[in-house]
Design brief:
mainly beta, Tachylectin-2, Chain A, Trefoil (Acidic Fibroblast Growth Factor, subunit A), nine-stranded mixed sheet
Length: about 700
C-alpha cells in the first residue's frame, strides 16, 4: 500500500474527524525483561520470549554457543554464549552483511524470508564453523577461531537444504540435508564442496524424517535428529552404527505446546495486499506449535539436554530447553515417567560454572554511544551513508530515501519483539522532515502496521496505518510541535497491538484502531519493532532524528514463578470450572456452586520445598496432598506425613494466575477429568493447546 501525496492532503482534511478526544495513558517504565532463569534453581521456557528460530547449539569445554536463522535482517547469524544453557549473552554476529545483488538492499525487489536460514553450528580442531542456506544461492560457510569473530565467509560449490555437518573421529567430514528423504555425502577436506561421488539417499522418503537435521556421533553411534511438521510439529531421531546407515527411526518429542493454541494465521506465503486471507485461531490445533526443530547437547558433567523451537503465533518461533532421558539407546525429550513431553519449568542444568541471571540483549538505546546496541538489525542491507549517530549526537538520524511504502523503505532499523507483552516507544524530532517524508514506529510483519509523522506542504500529520485493513487514521499537529513520542502496546497472548502518541512524553493519546498481529511465512520471522523513515515523492527528502528507544515489559516478572508460598489458595479447573476439594481423604473436583467449594475442604496452604517445588497442605492442617501408587484415579490423597517425593510438585507457572502441578512421584500432572465427577489423578502427560483437558488450574488466594 503506497502513500501518494494526495493521501496526505486528504488526511489533513479529515483531521477533525480522526483526531481522538479521550483515552490518555501514562508512559510505562522500561526496566525489567523476560528471563528464563527464575533465580531459585529453576528455569522457565522459553529461553527467550522473542524470535529465535532454527537453533543449533554446541559445547566447547565448559562453554555453550548458540546461533539461529536471521533471514533478511542484517547483521545475521547471532552468536550467543552461555555457561549453563539458561543464561545467554550475545557475542556478536557471524555475518555482518550480505549484499549479493540489488534486492538484498531493496533495489528492484526484496529478500523477505530469503536470507540466512537453518544454520549448522560446529566446532572442530580449534575452529568454529557455521554452514547456512540462502535461497537461490549455494550454501554459505562462516569460520572463526574466536566465536566473537572475526568470521571468514566463503561459498560452497553446492546448495544443501537444511544441512548438518559432522566431523568424524577418523578425519572425514560428513553432511546430511534435505526434507523427508535425507541425502548424505562426504565433504572435501577444505570444506569447499561435497565429494559428488559419495552422494546418496541416506533415508528414503516416508520414514518420518523431516528437515532441519542435526547430525551427531555419540558413543560410537550415529544419530540424526530431525523436525517434521506434517501434519503437526514433532521431532524424530534416526540411529545407526555407521554414518552411511542403514538407520532406524523413532519419535523423541511430540505434542508439547505448553498449552498454547494455534492463533491467527495468514494463508499462503506471498503478499496479499488488500486480499489478505487470514485464518482464525483453532483452539485445540497443535500445528507446528509443538516443539519440533532442534537437537541435543551434553554438559561437561554428563547431563543431556535438548533444545528446539516451537511456532508461537505472531511473536515468532521460540527456543526451549528440555531435559533428555536416554531409554533403549534413544535420546527422548522429557522425564523418565513422561517421555516426549517437556516441563515448562524445571531444574537448571548441572554445569561446571555457575552463571548470573542474564539475557542476550539490552533492548533500550539512547543512541548516545559510538555504535548501535547490538540488539539492532537492519531490514535488508543498509546504505551506511544515509544514517548516522554522529550527525546529531544523542540521536539516531535516518535520511528519508524514496520508497513506495514502508515495506520497501530502506534503512529501517529493527529488533525482535518480545513477549508475552511489550511496549516499544520512541521520541522523534520533526525538524528535519521535508514534504513527502514519513517516519515513526512500526510493527514489521505481514501484514504490518505503523504510527508516524507525515509532512506535507500543509504541515505535519500523525498517521496510523494498518496494512491488514488498508485503513489509516490521521490528525494534523499544531505548527509549534517539534517533537512527538510514539508507542505501541503489544499483547502477544491476545495477538493484538494498539498505538498511541504524545506531544509531551507523559500523556499518551490512543490513535487508530487495534492491529491484529498474525503468524505468517513470508518473512519467516515474528513481529519486529522498527524505526523507519522514507519519502513518498520519489526522491530523497529530509531526515528523521530519533532521540531514544525503550521497551517496557508489563509481564517481565512472569518468568519468575509467582508461587504463593505460605498462602492459602483454591484451585479451579480451566476445563469446567470445578474446584479441587478434600473428599474422604482424597482429592476430587466439585462444582464451584457446591457448598463444599466454599468450605475449608477447598483451601490449601502452599508449602515451600525449594527449587520452585511446593507441597499442598489442607488449610486446617489435617494432612498434605500426596501421590501414591502409579498416580491413577484415587491416588491423589491426603496423608499425615508422606514422603517428600510423594508430596512434592513442580509449580508450572502458565502466566495469568494459571498453573499445572507436576508430580515428582510420577513426572506427570495433577488431573481431573472435565465433567467427569470422579477423583483426581496424577497421570496427565500435560496440557492440550486449549488448556481444557483437566490439568490446568487457576489459583486464587483464599481466607483460612
Amino acid at each position: 500500500m503506497s502513500f501518494p501525496r494526495f493521501f496526505f492532503i486528504q488526511f489533513v482534511a479529515l483531521a477533525c474527524v480522526a483526531f481522538p478526544t479521550a483515552a490518555t495513558a501514562e508512559m510505562p517504565t522500561a526496566t525489567a525483561t523476560w528471563m528464563a532463569d527464575n533465580g531459585n534453581g529453576t528455569f522457565t521456557n522459553p529461553l527467550f520470549y522473542d524470535e529465535f528460530s532454527d537453533p543449533d547449539l554446541i559445547r566447547v569445554g565448559d562453554d555453550f554457543y548458540l546461533t539461529g536463522t536471521t533471514m533478511h535482517t542484517m547483521p545475521g547469524l547471532p552468536v550467543l554464549h552461555s555457561r549453563d544453557l539458561v543464561n545467554w549473552k550475545l557475542l556478536g554476529y557471524a555475518c555482518e552483511r550480505l549484499d549479493l545483488e540489488p534486492k538484498f538492499h531493496l533495489d528492484g525487489g526484496e529478500i523477505y524470508g530469503q536470507g540466512i536460514w537453518a544454520p549448522s553450528f560446529r566446532y572442530h580442531d580449534g575452529t568454529f564453523h557455521i554452514f547456512t542456506n540462502i535461497n537461490g544461492r549455494k550454501t554459505q560457510h562462516f569460520s572463526a577461531t574466536n566465536p566473537a569473530g572475526p568470521w571468514k565467509h566463503t561459498e560452497l560449490g553446492s546448495s544443501l537444504h537444511d544441512l548438518s555437518v559432522l566431523f568424524d573421529d577418523d578425519g572425514k567430514v560428513y553432511v546430511v540435508w534435505g526434507y523427508n528423504g535425507l541425502q548424505f555425502a562426504e565433504l572435501k577436506s577444505d570444506l569447499s564442496d561435497i565429494k559428488h561421488e559419495t552422494q546418496r539417499t541416506l533415508i528414503p522418503p516416508g520414514s518420518g524424517m523431516g528437515e532441519g537435521s542435526h547430525f551427531y556421533k555419540i558413543n560410537g553411534h550415529y544419530f540424526i535428529i530431525s523436525a517434521n511438521y506434517d501434519p503437526v510439529g514433532y521431532m524424530v531421531c534416526a540411529r545407526s552404527d555407521r554414518p552411511e546407515g542403514p538407520y532406524e527411526v523413532t519419535t523423541i518429542s511430540a505434542r508439547e505446546t505448553f498449552g498454547t493454541s494455534t492463533g491467527w494465521r495468514l494463508q499462503g506465503m506471498g503478499r496479499g495486499g488488500p486480499d489478505f486471507h487470514v485464518l482464525p485461531p483453532v483452539p485445540n490445533e497443535m500445528g507446528a506449535m509443538s516443539m519440533h526443530q532442534g537437537g541435543i547437547v551434553q554438559t561437561a558433567l554428563g547431563e543431556w539436554w535438548g533444545f528446539s523451537m516451537m511456532d508461537h503465533n505472531s511473536i515468532g518461533r521460540l527456543t526451549c530447553l528440555s531435559p533428555v532421558t536416554w531409554k533403549d539407546g534413544w535420546p527422548f525429550f522429557g522425564l523418565p515417567g513422561n517421555l516426549q513431553r517437556t516441563p515448562r519449568t524445571w531444574i537448571k542444568p548441572k554445569t561446571a560454572t555457575p552463571s548470573e541471571r542474564s539475557t542476550p540483549y539490552r533492548r533500550d538505546d539512547d543512541f548516545s554511544g559510538p555504535a548501535l546496541n547490538p540488539v539492532w538489525q537492519w531490514n535488508h542491507a543498509p546504505d551506511d551513508t544515509k544514517w548516522s549517530l554522529a550527525a546529531h549526537p544523542g540521536f539516531l538520524r535516518l535520511q528519508t530515501l524514496p520508497a513506495k511504502n514502508f515495506w520497501m523503505a530502506r534503512n529501517t532499523l529493527t529488533q525482535r519483539a518480545v513477549g508475552p507483552e511489550s511496549v516499544p516507544m520512541t521520541a522523534l524530532d520533526l525538524s528535519g522532515l521535508r514534504p513527502g517524508d514519513v517516519s515513526g514506529l512500526a510493527l514489521l510483519s505481514q501484514p504490518y502496521a505503523w504510527i508516524g509523522a507525515a509532512r506535507t506542504e500543509a504541515g505535519v500529520t500523525i498517521t496510523q496505518f494498518d496494512e491488514l485493513s488498508g485503513q489509516s487514521a490521521s490528525a494534523a499537529l499544531p505548527a509549534n510541535i517539534a517533537r512527538v513520542w510514539f508507542r505501541a502496546t503489544c499483547d502477544f497472548l491476545k495477538e493484538e497491538a494498539t498505538f498511541d502518541y504524545s506531544i509531551d512524553g507523559e500523556k499518551f493519546i490512543s490513535f487508530g484502531r487495534p492491529f491484529r498481529m498474525i503468524f505468517q511465512l513470508k518473512t519467516f520471522q515474528g513481529v519486529r519493532y522498527c524505526l523507519f523513515a522514507y519519502n513518498t515523492n520519489g526522491a530523497a527528502g529530509g531526515f528523521a532524528d530519533f532521540d531514544h528507544f525503550t521497551v517496557a515489559e508489563p509481564q517481565a516478572n512472569g518468568a519468575v514463578p509467582r508461587i504463593p508460598i505460605g498462602k492459602v489458595i483454591t484451585l479451579t479447573s480451566l476445563a469446567d470450572g470445578t474446584r479441587l476439594v478434600v473428599w474422604n481423604g482424597m482429592l476430587r473436583p466439585v462444582s464451584s456452586t457446591s457448598p463444599q467449594a466454599a468450605t475449608g475442604a477447598a483451601r490449601f496452604r502452599v508449602l515451600d520445598r525449594g527449587q520452585g517445588r511446593i507441597a499442598l497442605q489442607a488449610a486446617d492442617g489435617s494432612g498434605i496432598v500426596a501421590v501414591t501408587g502409579a498416580g491413577g484415579l484415587g491416588d491423589v490423597r491426603l496423608l499425615k506425613s508422606p514422603a517428600e517425593t510423594a508430596s512434592s510438585f513442580q509449580w508450572e507457572d502458565m502466566l495469568g494466575d494459571e498453573t499445572m502441578l507436576l508430580s515428582l512421584a510420577t513426572d506427570r500432572y495433577v488431573y481431573t477429568e472435565p465433567h467427569g465427577g470422579g477423583l483426581a489423578s496424577a497421570d496427565s502427560p500435560g496440557a492440550r493447546p486449549d488448556r481444557n483437558e483437566g490439568s490446568c488450574f487457576r489459583w486464587a488466594e483464599a481466607s483460612e
